[in-house]
Design brief:
- By secondary structure, the protein is an all-alpha fold.
- It has one domain.
- The chain contains 5 helices and no strands.
- The longest helix is centred in the first third of the chain and has 17 residues.
């Protein structure tokens, strides 16, 4: 059952934008660890995404050298939350809140090449 106390579209969109930001400007250190923890936790709640995750991992289950893979996975998780099954419970919401806290303003598109504030109008 979907969690009715939040705006599912907004939360899922933030996850998508964080994923896109991580893809274009890969995370390092604590941000990367938080992102990987988020992916591992969500895959327990959404086991059908394992196929997509497996396509982005090495044969031994480790993250590939391609640093953009983590961003692609998070983007696809957000897309699944938006288009298929809404955020299911407060636990899943907590995972998202932790990801948002760890990635700062990435949910607004910050750190992904240019952001809206950098675009100059003609």
């Amino acid at each position: 059952m979907a969690l009715a106390t939040i705006d599912n579209w907004e939360y899922s969109r933030w996850v998508e934008v964080i994923g896109r930001s991580l893809r274009y400007n890969p995370a390092t250190g604590a941000e990367r660890t938080a992102a990987q923890t988020f992916v591992n936790a969500v895959l327990v709640k959404r086991p059908w995404l394992d196929v997509m995750y497996d396509a982005n991992t090495n044969n031994d289950g480790t993250q590939p050298d391609d640093v953009q893979a983590l961003g692609r996975i998070i983007f696809n998780i957000g897309r699944d939350m938006q288009q298929n099954i809404s955020i299911q419970d407060v636990t899943e919401k907590g995972y998202i809140d932790t990801l948002i806290a760890a990635t700062g303003n990435r949910r607004y598109g910050d750190q992904a090449n240019t952001i809206a504030a950098d675009v100059q109008q003609p």
